[in-house]
Amino acid sequence: MRRGPGSTPPDDRLSAARVVLLTREGCHLCEVAQSVVEAVVAETGDTFATVDIDRHPDLGARHSDEVPVTFVDGRQHDFWRVDPVRLRKALAR
User: Over the stretch 32-63, which tens digit does the pLDDT of each residue have?
Assistant: First the structure.
């Protein structure tokens, strides 16, 4: 489910967060994904940020059908669901 090297969150202020989760209001999968990300980063001590794609038209155009979308270290990691085991492995690198 990875994308190419150009698939990075566009907002430079988010680069400090190891995990970035693209979400949208009213998205039940986003709520579940955020809970998984919160639990994993609480274990690992990593940072995460969420971005509402509806407030960023460029993100909405690219990822509208994939939310939630998870990025790790600036690269797309998953979309729709977050596998906690896979996320832990990515953060261990």
Answer: 999 999 999 999 999 999 999 999 988 888 88
Q: Which domains does the chain have, with CATH numbers?
A: 14-92 (3.40.30.10)
Q: Which of 22, 3, 21 has the alpha carbon at shortest distance from 76?
A: 3
Contact 67, 30 (CB under 8 A): yes
**Pair of tokens at residue 41:** 């980063």
- Hey, how many other C-beta atoms are within 10 angstroms of the C-beta on 2? 10
